[in-house]
Amino acid sequence: MLQQTRVEAAIPYYRRFLAAFPTVFDLANAQEEAVLKNWEGLGYYTRARNLHRAAKIVAGELAGQFPRTAKGLRALPGIGAYTAGAIASIAFGEAETAIDGNQIRVLTRLFAIEGETGKPGTAAEIRKAARALLDPDRPGDFNQALMGMGALVCLPKNPRCGSCPVRDCCGAKARGIEEILPRLPEKAEKKIVPCAVAMVFVPGGVLLRQRPMDGLLGGMWEFPVFENVHSAKELKAALADMGIAVRSVKRSESAEHVFTHLVWRMRGYLVEGTPAGMPSGCRAAGSALLGRVPMSSAMRMYRDIVYRELENRT
Ligand code: SF4
Prior knowledge:
Layout: H1 7-20, H2 24-29, H3 32-39, H4 46-59, H5 70-74, H6 81-92, H7 101-110, H8 120-133, H9 139-153, H10 171-175, E1 191-202, E2 205-210, E3 221-222, E4 225-227, H11 232-241, E5 244-258, E6 262-275, E7 282-285, H12 287-292, H13 300-313
Parallel strand pairs: 1-6
Antiparallel strand pairs: 1-2, 1-4, 2-3, 2-7, 5-6
Helix pairs in contact: 6-9, 7-9
The protein binds iron/sulfur cluster.
């Protein structure tokens, strides 16, 4: 959960998740939809699906034994170098580095590493610096200390050098360049994507569609979202392609949802439709089912609108 999410934001989800799946066997045996439902709102849903796949491997192939080395951990889905190093060092005492954004900041400043952090040469320099400092007897404490330093003392802006325990040996501080390090790669501009969100009322409720597994919000359910559809006329055509005859379309609310690389600029539409048959990957849902399926927070406002509509119709 902590990949891409702050601790404070993750805590309630973590508690809820562990209550639902208290052991690796519970998680391995769960339906993917239940796993995604318990991850709902936390975003980056690939993490949940990878965790589920990893639990199946641990509970099955590994007979419930969690790998105890960074190498073994990296073989599990969703676990990269940082997570493997963090788990191996903190949980199992393996002398492994765990280099996250906070550690990069502290290490580039401490060693006055001026190269852009995204470049392979700079990344190698940072790894070398981390390995040189790592305490082989207490690697977990060391890694957590560096993470803590980055989170509390060596801040991105206005680092608290006055109260820093390593200020006397900090290369960046000695040269007065602590504010300009680390040199991060330039962030790409987020792409703005206009979308139509179709709340299509059909016999049996509202139309839900599951997103393809391998893509944005993979496996989550939604009111069909059509990227680059700009008007009711274009939406009618897109729904016709799904085999839905549209009886009426009404504009609803607009909303924005920000992803890592793009922004959905959404326009909602309330649609009365008649499907020729249930389109592939879709189902009709009443209020009860709507509350059970996993939906991303991009759909939150539209789900509330649909709840009200369904209520008015009963
Ligand atoms: S002295 Fe300042 S820049 Fe250097 S590690 Fe400490 S807080 Fe960071």
